[in-house]
From TrEMBL:
Self-association and partners: Homodimer.
Keywords in alphabetical order: Glycoprotein, Glycosidase, Hydrolase, Signal
UniProt entry tagged with the keyword Nuclease: no
InterPro entries: GH, GH_1_N_CS, Glyco_hydro_1
Residues in the signal sequence: 1-19
MF annotations from Gene Ontology: beta-glucosidase activity
Record GO biological process: carbohydrate metabolic process
Name of protein: Myrosinase 1-like
SUPFAM superfamilies attached to this UniProt entry: (Trans)glycosidases
Family per record: Belongs to the glycosyl hydrolase 1 family.
Amino acid sequence: MSYLDVIVFCILISAKCCSQDVVFPSWFKFGAASAAYQIEGGWNASDKGESMWDKLLHTQPRVAADGANGDVACDSYHLWRRDIEMCVELGLELYRFSISWPRLLPSGFPNHISEDGKNYYNNLINGLLEKGIEPVVTLYHFDLPQSLQDLGGWANPLIADWFADYARVVFTLYGDRVKTWLTLNEPFGICDVGYNLQQAPYLNDTEVGRYLCNKNTMLAHAKAWRLYQEEFKPRYHGKVSLSTLFIWYEPLTPDDKEVTELTIEHWEGRYAHPIFSKEGGWPPRIQQFLDNAAKKEGYHRPRLPTFTAEEIELVRGTYDFYGLNHYTTRKVRKAKFGEEIESWPFYGSKELGIVLENDRSWPLGSVDWFAMYPEGLWKQLHWLKDTYGVQEILITENGYVNVDDDLNDWKRMKYIRDNLEQIQYAIEDGINVTGYIHWTLMDNFEWLAGYKVNFGLYAVNFTDPERKRTPRESARYYSKVTRGRSYDYLHVGLYE
Ligand code: NOJ
């Protein structure tokens, strides 16, 4: 901690010590999240199939920082008991994790179900339930079986049925015990990031592939949701949705209002409007915008493939709640004539002719894309309620990225506190936010950033063969929050 950090922290503590405790309603649940490829390791344990991340990082080892990969990661394939223990230490009510499709179905298809894969998740689910922790299970968190990637992956329309077949296996195996499901994690990440050389399958196809993928993820989600409704819901009474990445955008000047709305439609609308809007289908303005662009570029068909009327109906309304991944906020402005536009990390900027900026009053986190503006979360929750009329929102991810390993991660604590405060305000405004799942339980493989950055409540020693996990101050803070059901514990932790 620098001298300045200490001063800021002391001010923060005194402010918080004097504030009154705000208690979350009893139905509000606290959790933490992880994802299979980021933590499990055991990449070729037993009969597990190869995932597209295995393939990418084994064949192009320089793609991720420091040549890292998830071959061992946090070794949760062996250390899952310790993971459960950490959930207990944190006082969690929810633990969100994902199932590795190729671990369960080595060929990608349900012709063979791996016994070891099946048992691994059975043990994890049973272990959590024994401790009174509810599993929240993601079916797909970026790790497609390579066998399916070889067949075109998310660009092949048949994937919607392949995904539904996989979903049926998972619901059949675990549906009696798992009551909250997320079909896909961040389809934006799957398509916009994966087809822009920032994630597996590491393709450079932002014009066509990313939009085929966009449509197919919507259909895949919808098929899995409908299948649960018809075959499993009557017996198991669970809820199904997906996790949608949402960065909140605000216009830099009143002049930028329209382009900001378009930006929200481009980023979030393409993955939310087909499912959550009353009318379904693509957000009309962005569809028009992309159709015009495609014509100008000489394409004979829309690059964002049109939905048939039947498909619109298939996808529309396929949710039981809104699963929200929220991290940060950006200001949007129109690019000046001839201005160079960065396409990373805010994909789509070039297409829209926009520049994304940080407001000077928003403190930056440890990386330059991470502005801390918790009010953005509150605004976004309102926007979701106003735009789609959603009746329930579960925060499926929210977390703070750090570049050092410091165990005194007070900025993360402040980030959690401030975001919870905004959630509390939203609840007071009548928005039904039913839970907060922190990203992430422990440091893990952060995709192309490898192990260079961390989001964990627990630090993991990746040079230790035992992958020892150590609680950070944020873990102590969060365990006070979950037990006291209030965020006003910032004075606790550092001095305990
Ligand atoms: C979104 C993704 O779901 C997760 O896999 C990733 O690690 C976090 N955000 C942080 O970037």
